[in-house]
From TrEMBL:
Reaction catalysis annotation: L-threonyl-[protein] + FAD = FMN-L-threonyl-[protein] + AMP + H(+)
Pfam family, one: ApbE
Binding annotation for Mg(2+): G177, D294
Protein known as: FAD:protein FMN transferase
Cofactor notes: Magnesium. Can also use manganese.
Source organism of the structure: Pseudopedobacter saltans (strain ATCC 51119 / DSM 12145 / JCM 21818 / CCUG 39354 / LMG 10337 / NBRC 100064 / NCIMB 13643)
Lineage: Bacteria, Pseudomonadati, Bacteroidota, Sphingobacteriia, Sphingobacteriales
Length: 346
C-alpha cells in the first residue's frame, strides 16, 4: 500500500472495504479503563489511533512528531528527506537513519523471497506510468519502458552496515509499497512503550491490532463485499476476531489511471515494466506486523488466486482473503487455511 501520495487518481467502489468495528460493539467495559482516540493527517492520508487506558494519555504532538521523523527519512514528497537525497543522480551512497535501515533490511528479504517481484527500485517506472507526483498525458511506449528498466533491480543496490550504496549510477528507490506499514508498527511500538495494551492503529487503511478489549472480548474487523448484481449495496460478509496482528487490503481498484478504455493498475512488474493485470481484484492480508502485510501485497497481487493461497499456506503468520475473477469473468472469493480460523459466526 502506498504512502506519502498526495497525487489524486480516479477511484471506484471497493470490492472489499475494511472498517473498524472495534470498541463500538455492546458489552461490559471496565470502569477502570477509558477509551481514547487520536485522529490526524500524515503521509498524504489520515490516521486514527483508538486505545484503552487506565491513567496514561498519549500526546498527539508526540504521534505527529514520530510520523514527521519518518517523513524526513523516507518521503519522496519531502525535498530534503534522506530518500530524496539518495535519489539524486550524483549521490553514490548515503548514511541511513534507523527507520530507513530497518525498511531496507525488510525490503531485501522480501526481494529475495519474492524472486524479484517486490522491488523498491521501481521509482522510475512509477513515474513513467504516472503514479508519481506528476500526471502523464499518455501511456509510455516500449522504448521508454526499456530505457528505465536498466535502473530497476535491487541487485543494483547494496546495504553495507548503515550505508545504502548504488552499484549502478542513476538507481532510485521508492518505499511507498512498505513504509506506511512500517509507520504503523513504529506507532505500535511507541504505544507499547507507554504501557498501552489495547489498541487499533490505522494509517491509510493499514491496521495494527492489539487486544483483547478490556472486557476480555476479541477485537473485531469487518470485511464488506458488494452484491454481485448491485455494486452500490455493500453488505457485511464476515467479521474477523483478532487479538494481535496487522491487516491491510491491496487491490487494482485502489489506485489506477484510466486511459480511454484501458485501466492501468499502480502495481508495476519490475521485471518487464508493465502494470500487473492478473485475476486478483483484491487481497486482504493478515500478518504478525504491518510492514509484512504491506510488503506482501504487491507480491500477492502479481499471482493467480490459487497460487497466492498456496503461498500463504506455506508461510506462517501470513493469511489471505482474496476476491478474484475466474476465467469466465465471474467474481469469486477464496481464503487461506488460517484466515478461515479468524472468522466466527456473527
Amino acid at each position: 500500500m502506498d504512502m506519502f501520495n498526495c497525487f489524486k487518481f480516479s477511484s471506484v467502489k471497493l470490492f472489499v472495504k475494511l472498517f473498524l468495528l472495534v470498541f463500538i460493539s455492546s458489552g461490559f467495559k471496565p470502569k477502570s479503563y477509558k477509551r481514547e482516540q487520536i485522529n490526524g493527517f500524515a503521509q498524504g492520508t489520515t490516521y486514527s489511533i483508538v486505545y484503552y487506558t487506565q491513567d496514561k494519555k498519549i500526546d498527539k504532538v508526540k504521534i505527529d512528531s514520530i510520523l514527521k521523523s519518518i517523513d524526513l527519512s523516507m518521503s519522496l514528497y519531502t525535498p530534503h528527506s534522506v530518500i530524496s537525497k539518495f535519489n539524486l543522480y550524483e549521490t553514490k551512497e548515503i548514511e541511513l537513519d534507523n527507520h530507513f535501515k530497518k525498511v531496507m533490511e525488510k525490503s531485501f528479504l522480501l526481494y529475495k523471497e519474492s524472486k524479484g517481484v517486490f522491488d523498491v527500485t521501481v521509482e522510475p517506472l512509477v513515474r513513467l506510468w504516472g503514479f508519481g507526483s506528476k500526471k502523464v498525458s499518455r501511456l509510455p511506449n516500449q522504448k521508454e519502458i526499456d530505457s528505465v528498466l536498466q535502473y530497476v533491480g535491487m541487485d543494483k543496490l547494496k546495504l553495507q552496515g548503515n550505508k545504502l550504496i548504488k552499484v549502478k549510477d542513476g538507481v532510485k528507490v521508492d518505499l511507498n509499497g512498505i513504509a506506511q506499514g512500517y509507520s504503523v508498527d513504529v506507532l505500535a511500538d511507541y504505544l507499547e512503550s507507554q504501557s498501552i495494551r489495547h489498541y487499533v492503529i490505522e494509517i491509510g487503511g493499514e491496521l495494527r491490532i492489539k487486544g483483547p478489549k478490556p472486557d476480555g472480548s476479541a477485537m473485531k474487523i469487518g470485511i464488506e463485499k458488494p452484491e454481485k448484481e448491485a455494486l452500490e449495496n455493500e453488505l457485511m460478509k464476515d467479521i474477523i476476531h483478532i487479538n494481535s496482528g496487522a491487516i491491510t487490503t491491496a487491490g487494482n481498484y485502489r489506485k489506477f489511471i484510466q486511459q480511454n478504455d484501458k485501466t492501468i493498475s499502480h502495481h508495476i512488474n519490475p521485471k518487464n515494466g508493465q502494470p500487473f493485470s492478473g485475476e486478483i481484484i483484491s487481497a486482504t492480508i493478515y500478518a504478525k506486523d504491518a510492514i509484512s502485510a504491506d510488503g506482501y501485497d504487491n507480491v500477492i497481487i502479481s499471482m493467480k488466486a490459487d497460487e497466492a493461497i498456496g503461498f500463504a499456506n506455506k508461510h506462517p503468520h501470513l493469511e489471505l482473503y482474496l476476491i478474484y475473477k475466474d476465467k469466465t469473468g465471474m467474481i469469486k472469493d477464496t481464503l487461506s487455511t488460517g484466515f478461515k480460523k479468524l472468522l466466527k459466526a456473527q
